[in-house]
Design goal:
heterotrimer, A alpha/beta, B alpha+beta, C alpha/beta, A: Rossmann fold, Rossmann fold, 2 domains, five-stranded parallel β-sheet, 9 helices, B: alpha+beta, D-Amino Acid Oxidase, Chain A, domain 2, Alpha-Beta Plaits, Elongation Factor Tu (Ef-tu), domain 3, nine-stranded mixed β-sheet, eight-stranded mixed β-sheet, 22 helices, 39 strands, globular
């Protein structure tokens, strides 16, 4: 009776998400009265074993195969499926990252069992598991029941639990598992990695520095350009700016412009008209810089600076310079 | 943000264009201790202002809407938040071309520059238009595009800076509390919000589509319904983007397809009033949090828009390949009669409404309300058409509001005849003779909720008798019948029986009744029992609030009889100024008392057959009110005439009405009696006598001296508006109300035309407008054919130097000029009133 | 080139989503509906590929009869063929949906020939199960990679890029293949007016799906507790700069 927890690592360094999965899985295994095992795949897995033990992995399954040169969702899924079968695991889980969810979906498809993605809470009753999971990107929660005769496959919502080491390290016994993988599965193994610096678009930029009516003129966008450059991002703008002819339409963020989803959107002098908000709301974080504390953008943003953007942005640029220097 | 206050002089709810402009205007008028509450965030709280297309076409046939639109456009211009883009209403049909002629006429009336363009001239201004589908265009260079959100912000900031107005956004109103004030008057006392409770002397509801729901919290009604107007933003298109402007081309209103095309930067906003009416209950509007866009930008229903897309592409082919980037079912407010809801609510004292106002008239309407609160009546313009008190009970129900909005939505860009009748919600209030009138094939016109026969189909034989004919031009003939001329001539020759059940009748009773009645009226009400008084009621500034009859029916009893269009406003006015000591009781007896008018040379003979009372000028002199028995029914006889022939208004109990009708018709059978409609009573008979009508000739912008209704002396007792009235008597009277005759009705196509009384401008012989020093233009207030004098008659104020019989002037009608002559400042027909004295 | 895109009709709610009284569904009484965003991008990508390679795009959806609206939308932005699998339940679970889609795709391929590329959205906007595409691909015996933000099509192979921190993973996948598309791969076009009008004439084929329910059962939907005011004020004026840069460092956007 085992819970297998897929842990992702980069040359032996465990991803934060994996530690979250271990923290969550450790408790789940305890609640279910089953053993807590970690699974690592590919080169460098050995180096992670001490950390895995610290986070409660009693056994560490290291999966090796010649086609597992890099990530491959099908190969990883097939390998993990074989391990589940091999150890007759009662459950398997991962953190609900893109990769975690993808591999667990592969496992569930292969085992022809349900897969419950992005759980916040799992109650492992003896007959069936009950869980609360996120829908609508967290805007709604769903209470669900997992009914299966086979292995229970779940993922835990990323960032929903804080990674904490176990009170006492577990044994962390390493055992190697060698799956039998068809060479055809290499068809979906990563063949190359490219670092992208060129061609960042508004739609895909990790940072967008937006300017609104409050910027005041086309020329006054210069400090925003500078800030965007310092952060590897691009400049966007509101409809008022386009209407005033300060920036081209292609820079417009909003319902009638581009919808953005950066890591952070820095909205300067933007009131937050609905049309603009719709384009910006997918941003992971929003920092509003505005003189008006009642502005829509300020009340909707996660972070805000109340003040004149023409003074605040130079100060930020100076601070960035200072820390670099 | 400051601490939420516990009390304020004025709480304005809603920070859209209206609420913001209202606090700004209140501040300008010296108000302080203002609080502005808004449920949503600023500057765009998510109401209709936030998605408005923000353009103003200044020409409107309605005077209030036209002048307040212009007033608003000027306020936007003064703030430099407006661009004159120009605008063109294009016609695809001959009927619309005629309507554009009518637009030209209204433009002239209000002094707005306008031009009729050929299709190729339209194309010069709008190069991407398909000129082949249009017949022409009405071009107005001062059509403007405004920034309503920024205007609201500027006005709000002005109120903050000059009057210390406190603003609380993201604050939801949960309740409006009232208290029983002095005299048991329900009075607003506090606004309860999710941020706290605030006591207030005045509360103003400026909540746009939510207004009725908010007013309902206090037990008041603001009859409006949120209605969808679809809009799609398509683009980008190079030809638009190259203007590098928010708007570089004139706005095009494709009137016959109920659409507009308005450039917005590189895109085109295509708006529609052509789809089915889509109405929502305020409770169905999502909150800011629930809405995908904003609360009033509801999910687009594309099936409703497809027809408009096809016609839009037909007009501008480039639209077809442009992307639909944003499309909404935008909400706006519709009321049962298409006019705004301004003024104090009738149910709750000091609870005011500033609602059903669109961006195009927002700043002006806000000024109206601010002045109303300050001076007791608006100054910038007469706003009786927007007065919230105009609605009767039957007009305040959801059923009525929805029915009217459903029917009127398509009229937004429609061609609406001045006399056009509603199809739905008829027969709400009918007189006791209704079934008899139906049997007589009456054509009913609805006045607010009341049905009134305009003419009787059963009198069709009079057309032959008097050799009458239909009018040549369909527009002039629409909602009209030559029967009405026949009824007129028969009344002058024999007699007519007129149903006046729609009179709104009230009673003041109690020890203070006469004194209070005198306080309301210009003329002396404290007269002998049995005498009547025809009198204006004035606004505090000395203009007309009302014009009606008061009768002293007993020592401590005064009856008030007013027109059906004015009952709501007049009864509110009485209630509003009522002494609080309980000395006067005010009762509405409209549905207890019915009125029949019997006039014509044979009227005394007819009536004489049914009563023993002395009907001579001694026994029943003009203006007297006497109780008599007619056909065994107790009645009150009021010797008066609004049509120029002798006779009476006969009052009796509602239940006795049918028997009275039957008795009079039977007694008049061999005296040529005919049931006679409102076409004679309200128009032709009245016009020949030059009698003025409240709401037409009489408005708050004019005083009794100008209207020719001033008496030689002013009574000693105080009355509302007395000070202003006395001052006016001291000054010079600049204009006089005149009746004009149309000297030649032949148009350029050789057709006889009949002006409708829709504000047609009176012009000098060289075609110039006639405007007095207050900016009041001479325009037709009532028009109609005078069968006895044989001329088409017009009423208009004219500067005194022109108000001389025989003066030659012109009237514009359908964009053509017709010669007119000043006939009289009094009556054209029987100026000596000999027929009344017979 | 034959492409197939699977899309899902989802409500378009605001920040606050209401739930029906039985707690089984989103209360969509006054909401509009849209195509789940990742799938909208998948559709755009398919249309672009079809335009470049003389392809045809079939759009397939499983949903209520009203999902016809999303198929017509697909028609208005360049789709060619449309198949609706109408269901009467609020939603089908992922296993059941995948089974029905697999059957439908097999039927379509039997009749018209195989699809070179089948595109899914990475996950649906509402249920967010992260698995339907994977299950379908597995059932069809085809390769699949999720999270795709870039595609290059060549004869017999497709190069797909998946975003990772600071760059992309590249996959060389033989066709026929299945890809899970992520928003950001492109900027979906809006329908033109002519496109919208033409879409009304699109033929929609409807086939009642049959599949057994899977093992994940919904008990109820509910809303997470709302945080009161979430805006953290970092400061006023230029003095706030250090706090801002702290935040930027924390988010890892300061290179």
């Amino acid at each position: 009776m085992t819970l297998l927890i897929l842990c992702d690592h980069d040359r032996g360094t465990l991803a934060e998400a994996s530690l979250e999965a271990l923290t969550f899985g450790r408790q789940l295994a305890t609640d279910a009265g089953i053993a807590c095992h970690a699974v690592v795949i590919g080169q460098g897995a050995q180096e992670a074993s001490a950390q895995l033990a610290a986070y409660g992995a009693e056994t560490i399954h290291v999966i090796n195969h010649e086609i597992l040169t890099d990530f491959g969702p099908e190969a990883w899924g097939e390998a993990l499926t074989q391990l589940v079968r091999s150890v007759d695991a009662s459950a398997a889980m991962a953190c609900g990252t893109d990769r975690g969810n993808e591999v667990m979906a592969q496992v569930a498809a292969r085992l022809n069992v349900p897969f419950v993605a992005n759980c916040l809470d799992v109650t492992p009753n003896s007959e069936q598991w009950e869980m609360t999971r996120v829908q609508w990107g967290g805007s709604l929660l769903e209470d669900a029941t997992l009914e299966t005769d086979g292995a229970k496959i779940v993922s835990v919502t990323h960032h929903s639990c804080e990674a904490t080491p176990a009170a006492a390290p577990a044994a962390g016994t390493t055992t190697v598992f060698s799956p039998e993988l068809e060479s055809a599965l290499s068809r979906t193994v990563v063949t190359d990695r490219v670092v992208l610096t060129q061609g960042i678009t508004l739609a895909t930029a990790p940072v967008v520095v937006g300017g609104g009516r409050g910027v005041g003129s086309a020329e006054a966008f210069a400090p925003l350009e500078e800030l965007a450059a310092a952060l590897g991002g691009v400049v966007g703008c509101s409809r008022a700016v386009t209407n005033n002819g300060w920036r081209p339409h292609s820079d417009q963020v909003g319902q009638t412009g581009t919808r953005i989803a950066p890591q952070i959107y820095i909205a300067n002098g933007i009131s937050g008209a609905i049309q603009h908000w719709v384009g910006a709301m997918a941003a992971k974080n929003i920092l509003a810089i505005n003189t008006d504390a009642e502005a829509n953008m300020v009340t909707k943003a996660g972070h805000a600076v109340i003040g004149d953007l023409h003074k605040v942005i130079p100060a930020i640029l100076e601070e960035i310079e200072r820390r670099k220097g | 943000m400051s601490e939420f206050p516990t009390n304020a002089k004025v709480v304005v709810i809603g920070a859209g264009i209206v609420g913001n402009c209202l606090v700004g205007h209140l501040a300008r008028l010296g108000w302080t201790d203002l609080v502005l509450i808004e449920k949503g965030p600023l500057p765009n709280p998510g109401g209709s202002t936030g998605h408005a297309s923000n353009f103003i076409f200044p020409v409107d046939h309605n005077k209030e809407m036209a002048l307040l639109g212009e007033q608003s456009a000027d306020q936007y211009r003064d703030m430099d938040l407006s661009v004159d883009s120009g605008g063109i209403e294009v016609a695809r049909t001959q009927e619309r071309m005629d309507e554009l002629d009518r637009r030209m006429t209204s433009a002239k009336a209000w002094g707005i520059e306008a031009h009729l363009l050929s299709p190729s001239e339209v194309k010069e201004l709008v190069p991407f238009i398909n000129e082949e589908v249009i017949l022409g265009g009405f071009y107005c260079p001062t059509v403007s595009v405004v920034d309503s959100l920024e205007t609201g912000t500027v006005m709000r900031k002005e109120a903050i800076e000059t009057a210390g107005c406190q603003v609380f956004a993201n604050t939801e109103v949960l309740d409006i509390e009232t208290t029983q004030g002095e005299g048991g008057v329900t009075t607003v006392s506090a606004v309860v919000t999710d941020k706290g409770r605030i006591e207030a002397e005045y509360v103003v509801v400026a909540c746009g589509v939510w207004s009725n729901r908010i007013a309902n919290m206090a037990g008041a009604t603001i009859p409006l319904v949120p209605t969808v107007h679809q809009m799609a933003d398509v683009g980008p298109m190079d030809i638009l983007a190259e203007t590098n402007n928010e708007i570089g081309y004139p706005i095009v209103r494709d009137m016959d397809t109920f659409c507009y095309e308005r450039q917005s930067s590189g895109s085109m906003e295509v708006g529609s009033y052509g789809h089915r009416a889509i109405l929502h209950h305020p409770d169905e509007i999502p909150s800011n949090q629930e809405a995908a866009l904003s609360p009033t930008e509801m999910p687009f229903t594309p099936d409703d828009f497809d027809d408009q897309m096809e016609t839009a592409i037909e007009l501008m082919d480039m639209l077809g390949d442009a992307e639909i980037k944003y499309a909404i079912n935008g909400l706006l407010s519709l009321t049962p009669d298409g006019m705004p809801c301004l003024g104090e609510t009738i149910e709750v004292r000091n609870l005011w409404s500033a609602a059903a106002v669109w961006v195009k008239e927002g700043p002006g309407m806000a000024q109206v309300v601010a002045e109303w609160m300050t001076y007791g009546y608006p100054r910038v313009i007469d706003a009786h058409g927007a007065d919230l008190a105009r609605f009767y009970e039957g007009e305040r129900s959801d059923e009525h509001i929805w029915s009217r909005a459903d029917e009127s939505f398509i009229k937004t860009y429609g061609i609406v005849h001045p006399a056009e009748q509603w199809e739905g919600r008829r027969n709400i209030d009918v007189g006791p003779y209704f079934s008899r009138q139906q049997d007589l094939d009456a054509m009913f016109f609805q006045a607010r909720t009341w049905e009134r026969p305009q003419w009787y189909g059963a009198n069709a034989d009079l057309v032959e008798r008097y050799d009458l004919s239909e009018r040549t031009v369909e527009w002039d003939n629409r909602w009209w019948s030559p029967i009405t001329v026949g009824e007129h001539l028969n009344l002058r020759e024999n007699c007519g029986l007129v149903d006046l059940s729609a009179f709104q009748i009230y009673e003041l009773e109690g020890p203070g009744a006469v004194q209070y009645a005198d306080y309301l009226a210009v003329n002396k009400v404290d007269v002998a029992v049995g005498r009547s008084i025809y009198t204006p009621w004035l606004t505090p500034d000395g203009g007309f609030h009302s014009d009606l009859t008061m009768m002293r029916t007993a020592q401590d009893k005064v009856r008030i009889v007013t027109g059906v269009f004015d009952g709501g406003r007049d009864s509110f006015w009485v209630n509003r100024h009522m002494p609080l000591d309980g000395s006067v009781k005010f009762t509405n007896i409209t549905k207890q008392v019915t009125t029949l008018g019997l006039w014509g040379p044979n009227a005394p003979t007819v009536l004489g057959q049914l009563t023993d009372a002395d009907l001579s000028q001694n026994g029943s002199p003009y203006g007297s009110v006497i109780d008599v028995e007619i056909a065994g029914l107790p009645c009150t006889l009021f010797r008066v005439s609004y049509v120029g022939d002798t006779g009476w208004e006969i009052y009796t109990n509602w239940a006795n009405g049918p028997a009275l009708w039957d008795a009079l018709m039977a007694a008049g059978a061999d005296q040529g009696i005919r049931p006679t409609g409102g076409g004679v009573y309200g128009t032709s008979g009245r016009l020949e006598k030059g009698y003025r009508l409240m709401g037409a000739e009489l408005e708050s912008e004019y005083n009794p001296l100008e209207a020719g209704l001033a008496r030689p002396k002013v009574k000693a007792a105080d009355f509302i508006g007395k000070e202003a009235y006395l001052a006016a008597r001291e000054g010079t009277t600049e204009v006089a109300m005149c009746t004009l005759t149309v000297e030649d009705q032949t148009d350029s196509q050789g057709r006889q035309r009949f002006m409708q009384g829709g504000n047609e401008p009176i012009l000098t012989l060289d075609g110039g407008r006639i405007v007095d020093s207050h900016g009041r233009a001479s325009r037709v207030t009532t028009a109609g054919f005078g069968p006895t004098v044989g001329k088409h008659l017009l009423m208009s104020y004219l500067p005194t130097e022109l108000a001389v019989p025989g003066t030659d002037l012109q009237v514009m009608y359908m964009n053509e000029l017709f010669p007119v002559k000043v006939g009289s400042t009094g009556a054209i027909f029987d100026p000596e009133n000999t027929r009344l004295k017979s | 080139m034959r492409l197939l895109v699977c899309v899902k009709r989802v409500p378009a709610p605001g920040a606050r989503i209401n739930i029906t009284a039985d707690e089984q569904a989103v209360d969509s009484a006054h909401l509009g509906f849209t195509t789940s965003p990742h799938e909208e991008c998948a559709l755009e990508e398919a249309v672009q590929i079809a335009e470049a390679h003389e392809g045809q795009v079939t759009v397939l959806t499983l949903g209520p009869a009203e999902a016809e609206e999303q198929l017509r939308y697909a028609a208005s932005v360049g789709g060619n063929h449309f198949v609706l699998l109408p269901i009467t339940e609020v939603d089908w679970d992922a296993q059941r949906t995948a089974a029905a889609l697999t059957q439908a795709i097999s039927d379509l391929e039997e009749a018209e020939g195989p699809f070179d590329l089948v595109l899914f959205g990475n996950e649906s906007a509402d249920a967010g199960g992260f698995q339907v595409g994977v299950r379908v691909a597995h059932a069809l015996g085809r390769p699949i990679v999720n999270g795709i933000k870039g595609i290059d099509v060549a004869e017999g192979t497709v190069t797909a890029r998946r975003e990772i921190d600071g760059g992309f993973e590249v996959y060389e996948i033989p066709t026929p293949a299945v890809l899970g598309i992520k928003e950001g791969i492109n900027l979906p076009r809006y329908p033109t007016m002519k496109g919208r009008l033409a879409s009304k004439k699109a033929v929609i084929e409807a086939t009642e799906p049959t599949a057994e329910p899977g093992g994940q059962k919904r008990r109820r939907l509910h809303r997470p507790e709302e945080a009161a005011s979430t805006t953290v004020i970092l400061g006023e004026g230029p003095e706030a700069a250090p706090a801002v840069v702290d935040l930027l460092e924390e988010l890892g956007v300061l290179s």
